[in-house]
Specification:
It is built from 16 helices and ten strands. By secondary structure, the chain is an alpha+beta fold. The N and C termini lie far apart (45 Å).
Length: 343
């Protein structure tokens, strides 16, 4: 691979270091540029067991207002290349805005307003699921991306997945940031924040330490927009986004709940509850479905014998599952595991 290959191979190690989000995004851009030239880059991470559950992202050379409008559109489901669109394709890549549908027309208007010429977006997918996506943008007036560019970027999937994976695993399993009470934002049907608790401002400041201020505003209004979809389509679950401990010293979540039929939404930001945290940790640390069942019983206060009876397995098997979880998460035993999940 030469020099360019060394830059790419070094990305997972960089992700495990104490780089800021902007620094890591710049490093990814520098490594990818010799493969496919671009003017801006966005790397997003998903829980690998769900294509649409974004948990963190890295942005390089994005104009704040463009990023804010993109995030709001993306979270509201108005983007033409959502993970659910790309995951069905044999080649999970899209040339954004090149179609004829209303979502394509909308994104082209956004591109035109901010001097964006084209965007290439690829899903980072392997046998275990979708781990995230990479978007490359070029300014207006330059050569548009094509399918050959997409094929070259898709070849980078293994190293980019490893980068996301290493980033998440670099964070502490046991929280090192103090626990705080939840914060609540109230968002009206027009996407405007009309109220917030005092702790909401505290959480917003923590988020702004790692993202542009416009990104935080877009996150809140975007989750509210996505939540409103649940009023029109009851089968859609309320959105929940988890941000990893590597960024905040503990896993935190942002989720929306409809307040009324007029479109008002409450967006709750807090430390991830134990049972939800188990899902995210399980995805990234390789905790199996059976091991998660054992831990669910453990969270209920059950002893090994009770877990064995409840799951119709031997005590020896239960203890084997527990030891495997302790090893995967790097905790010394039951007490440390429960502290990590409940603190």
């Amino acid at each position: 691979m030469g020099v360019d290959g060394r830059l790419l191979r070094g990305l997972p190690a960089l992700a495990g270091e104490s780089l800021s989000s902007l620094e890591l995004a710049e490093a990814v851009s520098r490594a990818v540029a010799p493969v496919v030239a671009h003017d801006a880059l966005r790397l997003m991470g998903n829980n690998p067991d769900g294509a649409g559950h974004t948990v963190f992202s890295f942005w390089h050379n994005f104009e704040d207002e463009f990023g804010r409008q993109f995030m709001r559109s993306y979270l509201a489901g108005d983007d033409p290349c959502l993970p659910t669109d790309l995951v069905r394709q044999p080649m999970p890549a899209g040339l954004v805005g090149t179609g004829r549908g209303p979502r394509d027309r909308s994104i082209r208007q956004l591109f035109d307003a901010h001097g964006v010429g084209s965007e290439l977006r690829v899903l980072l997918r392997d046998a275990h699921g979708v781990w995230g996506s990479l978007a490359l943008l070029r300014s207006a007036g330059g050569r548009a991306f094509d399918r050959a560019d997409a094929a070259r970027v898709l070849e980078l999937t293994p190293v980019l997945i490893a980068t996301l994976w290493q980033y998440v695993l670099s964070g502490p399993v046991q929280p090192v940031a103090p626990e705080q009470t939840p914060g609540v934002f109230v968002v009206d049907a027009a996407g405007k924040v009309t109220g917030a608790t005092p702790m909401a401002a505290w959480w917003a400041e923590r988020l702004r330490e790692h993202h542009p201020a416009s990104w935080v505003d877009a996150l809140v209004s975007g989750i509210a927009a996505q939540t409103r979809l649940t009023l029109r389509e009851p089968g859609i679950p309320a959105p929940v986004m988890h941000c990893p401990a590597a960024r905040f010293g503990r896993w935190i979540s942002a989720e929306g709940q409809p307040l009324d039929q007029d479109g008002a939404v409450a967006v709750l930001v807090r430390a991830v509850p134990a049972r939800e945290l188990l899902v995210s940790l399980g995805s990234w640390y390789g905790v199996t479905a059976r091991e998660r069942q054992v831990i669910q019983h453990l969270l209920d206060g059950a002893a090994a014998k009770q877990i064995a009876r409840g799951l119709d397995m031997s005590v020896h098997t239960v203890n084997g599952h527990l030891k495997a979880v302790y090893r995967k998460l790097g905790v010394a035993g039951r007490a440390e595991l429960l502290t990590a999940l409940n603190t």
